[in-house]
């Protein structure tokens, strides 16, 4: 059971070592692109290319859908970013339970958005947890874990790609041990639990009263979605790459200022924040392609010296 690109390596790994995948469950096709045409998930596309049955219930709670799963008689259900909470009736079907590939070191960052939240909070490391699912939100006992360092320039996209590969490797290491009774699950320490809430489009708005270091983490955490943005002359301006610079005397949050080569060679224009200056590297004006922030500033007279809205 999986939907986005993150789940693809795990399905590929299961196929490569010879497991019999009786079916793939994935989210229904969704509108995508400018034409809003119905588009299959990455997991569905892989399953179709391998001739595996696809099942796409809107919500896996209808008795007929649960009966369909039971009729497949799976020994184990592997779940990776499926996008649905499984009811107890589903968890009870497979002999060896439902095991989940969760991209964090549980109990830290339970919930829907563990990868962005690890970057947002400045964590130095994260990882992948293989857990036996229960009825709670990522509360089940742990089968295995692997650590991954968060690099200074990691975005949610780059970190997700590494964690997907790490998770697939950990899965094929852990699954045979679990099926052979060689692993005893151990409970999570609930006193150490943290939760990652679902990210919304509105979370991407910069908020120049925040410290530059926090805004730098937000820009990285919200790529590829929802991306961070501000407003200039009534139009959206996306911030795609940036750097946090030291504070200046008399900073006015939102004010666009030039950056001298003595401060950094990586940015020529920045925005003053609640603490420090955020040097802009790459931006994307509304309706245009991404570009160097310095090129945008040269083409947009009045940008340097303007004050961008706080919210």
The CATH class name of the largest domain reads Alpha Beta
Class per helix and strand makeup: alpha+beta
Question: Domains counted in the coordinates: how many?
Answer: 2
In the CATH hierarchy, the architecture of the largest domain is 3-Layer(aba) Sandwich
What share of residues is helical? 25-40%
Set down the secondary structure blueprint.
Elements: H1 8-16, E1 24-25, E2 30-32, E3 37-39, H2 42-49, E4 54-55, H3 63-72, E5 77-79, H4 88-91, E6 98-102, E7 110-111, H5 114-120, E8 125-132, E9 142-149, H6 156-179, E10 195-196, H7 212-221, E11 228-232, E12 235-245, E13 256-258, E14 269-272, E15 277-285, E16 291-292, H8 293-299
Parallel strand pairs: 1-4, 5-6, 7-10
Antiparallel strand pairs: 2-3, 6-8, 8-9, 11-12, 12-15, 13-14, 14-15, 15-16
Helix pairs in contact: 1-6, 5-7
Features:
311 residues, Rossmann fold, Methionyl-tRNA Fmet Formyltransferase, Chain A, domain 2, 2 domains, 6-stranded antiparallel β-sheet, 4-stranded mixed β-sheet, 8 helices, 16 strands, elongated
Question: What is this entry, summarized?
Answer:
The protein has 311 residues and is of the alpha+beta class. The protein has eight helices and 16 strands.
Protein described:
With 311 residues, the protein is of the alpha+beta class. The longest helix has 24 residues, at 156-179. It has two domains: 5-196, Formyl transferase, N-terminal domain (Rossmann fold, 3-Layer(aba) Sandwich); 201-299, Methionyl-tRNA Fmet Formyltransferase, Chain A, domain 2 (Roll), CATH 3.10.25. A hairpin with a 4-residue loop joins strand 14 (269-272) and strand 15 (277-285). The chain has helices at residues 8-16, 42-49, 63-72, 88-91, 114-120, 156-179, 212-221, 293-299; strands at residues 24-25, 30-32, 37-39, 54-55, 77-79, 98-102, 110-111, 125-132, 142-149, 195-196, 228-232, 235-245, 256-258, 269-272, 277-285, 291-292. The mean pLDDT is 95. The strands form five sheets. Strands 11, 12, 13, 14, 15 and 16 form a six-stranded antiparallel sheet that branches. It is built from eight helices and 16 strands. Helix 1 (8-16) packs parallel to helix 6 (156-179) and helix 5 runs antiparallel to helix 7.
